[in-house]
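New here. Invent one.

***
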Amino acid sequence: MKLGSALALAVGLALLALVIEASDPRAAIALLATLPPSAALWVLALFALAWAAEIQAWALTFTTRPVTPHWYARLWLVNMVGEALNVVMPFGALGGEPVKAWLLKRHHAVSYREAGTTLVLMQTLLAIAEALFVAVGAALAAALGLLPPAMAQLLYLAAACLTVAMTIALLGLRLRWLRALLGHVESRLARARHRRWLAALGDIEIALADFARVERRRLVASTTLYLVNWLGGAAEVWLMLELLNVALPFAHCWVAEAAIVTIRSLTFFLPAQLGSVEAVTVWVVAALGGSAESGLALAALRRARELAWAALGLGVGAAYRLEWRTAPRD
């Protein structure tokens, strides 16, 4: 294991230990013991619905391919593998997204340029939807006075930063700032290898700009579906707390998920954001009217769902690996 990964894992484990020490693990386990037998089915069903919205949003970025059930199923499986790697590897998308492009190329005859374009669009639109989701969460927290001042200010700052960043990203797509940057870099690099990479990035930039300018309906629809996906996280918080016999209004759950999403984004370098997600879940649930123990039980339940889905994704990845020799290699 590389030093950076080891340090990130150590930080995550230290945070997790602090969270457990600050709460009552036995009380959290007692809450988990009250879950009905059907809890896993309800949780996975809700998560699958939010996942379906994400896959549909991704499918809309493939402008040359109709969204057939067969193609939708392929994207579903590829995304499962990539997101499973995002969970188990440090630095998240730096591990999973390239694997998605590789799977699309090797198994589904999608060029790296097309796959790269859709993945960049996917991350951009997902981030725009995240900014909207966190901004609404911050507005709810402010209007209802739900969070302590320090926690509320962090959420407001995160919402403002995300909104500014996504506004810049949208302007950059429309005004083609990336093309100007690539031209500036190309003028300073003389090696043929660098020029090939820049040419490939230039093709992706053109596709991104065309999507933003020409495919406006797809852009809006895809962003809306990604927002639905983020709302699925708030719904999951509400459902899991209900299953744990902890009643919080949906608005409170939205604020909780907005805070969790913010910390998850800020601690992207931790493997699976271990420790940081548990810490913010415990603190924000307690601040919103629950208890530290109910927050710990919620964090454990969400982590179990995440690991179960990641295990399924790794299983799909193993199946892909078994048949890779027969995949097209154009």
